[in-house]
Design brief:
Elements: E1 4-9, H1 15-26, E2 42-47, H2 56-61, E3 63-67, E4 74-78, H3 79-86, H4 88-97, H5 106-110, E5 113-115
Parallel strand pairs: 1-2, 2-5
Antiparallel strand pairs: 3-4
Length: about 120
């Protein structure tokens, strides 16, 4: 099967709509060769990520958490803080990552996602 590249223009669209479209394409559900247990040669490029529509309320209310494994190691970061610190690309990647099934193929599928500001 030939490699397929999907380009998603994020300008003027909401984060969830763009992320779900990207996750759908990464899983290979847009192709006729969809198989659950294989990573298909599909690449997804999200362009104009800085032009995403994210409300101020959403940016303040959305909290990303991770646990370091140590006592008192719960780390929290709001979407606004993550955007300022790591860029909007990190927020888009984290959102798409949350929509991919948690299995052995997840890492390989996420390697095929590119986000451009």
């Amino acid at each position: 099967m030939q490699p397929v590249t999907y380009t998603i223009d994020a300008s003027g669209r909401t984060l969830g709509r763009v992320a779900s479209e990207a996750a759908h394409a990464l899983l290979g559900k847009r192709t006729a060769h969809f198989v659950k247990n294989e990573v298909l040669p599909v690449k997804v490029v999200i362009t104009n990520a800085k032009k995403l529509v994210i409300s101020e309320k959403k940016a303040r209310a959305t909290v990303y958490r991770h646990y370091t494994g140590y006592p008192g190691g719960l780390r929290e970061m709001t979407m606004k803080e993550m955007t300022d610190k790591k860029g909007i690309e990190a927020v888009v990647i984290k959102t798409v990552d949350g929509m991919i099934p948690r299995n052995k193929l997840r890492k390989e599928r996420m390697k095929r996602l590119t986000v451009e500001a």
